[in-house]
Amino acid sequence: MCGIWAIFGCNYDAVDLYTAALRVSHRGPDNFRICNLSQLRNCVLAFHRLQIVGGSGGMQPMTLKQYPHLTLLCNGEIYNYKQLQEEFGFSYESDSDCEVIVHLYNQFGIKKASQLLDGVFAFLIIDTANNSVLLSRDTFGVRPLFYDVTKNNILGVCSEVKGLCDFKINGHKAFQPQHLPPGHSMVCKISEDGKVSKAAPVQFHRIGKMPAHFLHQANKLNNGYTKEAIYNNLRCLIYEAVEKRLIGQRSLASLLSGGLDSSLISAITVMKMRERGDKKPLQTFTIGMAESPDVTAAREVASYIGSDHSEITFTPTEGMNALETVIYTLETYDPLTIRIAVPLYLLCGYISENTDNVLIMTGEGADELAQGYLYFHKQPTAKDGDIESRYITYHYLFILL
């Protein structure tokens, strides 16, 4: 993940702006940049980078020589950036996967550009030629994006709410940050002094509808609803979902609970690594109370797939001590989300402190989509279960935090 932050149309003290931008520094430990936008007054942009794909040329804010009127801030991973380059003949200036967004927007506009991206993203584009600021967020909301336009037309944008909380107007909080809804983009007009007009988000894609970027891969799937066709399609989609996430150039690991979802993801990752000639064992990690069922099951799976496995245990006291930090990090008091996040926070802290892994595979979302939770077993009909699966639509408000 990376952190993006931007303020348009204000003349706050430089120290206050810098301090606010640093509120999300944990999102990008590899590099940081804060700058003014020369073409507009009262505009400040900041970027915290976690480097996954590409070298120093992928640093942001990104402005290409081909399109000096466009500036990009993006927290995301674009899996099909090479395919899009081949299809449309884009001339890349860097090895960053996010650069393709600028090319797509310049050629097609914000709606089609967003539709063609296969990946997870939250981005901002400043288009000085058309006096516009544009926001967009992926269909599931995997990457967060908050924004607000005040009554006096100041726009604040950030990957987390905390980056916009310090600003005040007449003694009151300037911003009331809100989510940009997943699968939506927004176009705001901007004046030379940086003031921004309010606009409404517009949906470019919704869950359940075939994404535009998938049309090229659809011929791999079988038509019909026989068991054989369904099994083949699931297998094809899961394998492809894992493989396309292996584009990163940093060390890779996988979270392993011993359940079906994380076990499948870990096993397929090992398989794909072998196909690429990578003989290094995949590192897998499990956390739980001592000798909990998850720890025991994960140990068996790790032995079967031949991973380099680590087990981390924690005590109730350690979990309680992490609560305050977890709530601050997630920016929520939702009890279910916090309950799940506490051990995950402790586990990720261990991985960060003891390994060089920054790419972590997980199995999030499968239980909602494939009805894996126990309460699904008591559904009166298949239709009732399908209705309950709608919670995947709201995943970004809870589990994905």
Automatic annotation (TrEMBL):
Q: Which domain of life is it from?
A: Eukaryota
Q: Which reaction does it catalyse?
A: L-aspartate + L-glutamine + ATP + H2O = L-asparagine + L-glutamate + AMP + diphosphate + H(+)
Every copy of the Glutamine amidotransferase type-2 domain together lies at: 2-191
Q: Where are the transmembrane segments?
A: none
- Species for this entry: Ciona intestinalis (Transparent sea squirt)
Q: Which GO terms describe its biological process?
A: asparagine biosynthetic process; L-asparagine biosynthetic process
Which CDD domains does this one have?
Answer: Asn_synthase_B_C, AsnB
Official protein name in the record: Asparagine synthetase [glutamine-hydrolyzing]
Q: Name one GO cellular component term.
A: cytosol
Question: What PANTHER family does the annotation carry?
Answer: ASPARAGINE SYNTHETASE, ASPARAGINE SYNTHETASE [GLUTAMINE-HYDROLYZING]
Task: Please provide an example of a Pfam family that matches this protein in its UniProt record.
Answer: Asn_synthase
One GO term in the molecular function aspect is:
ATP binding
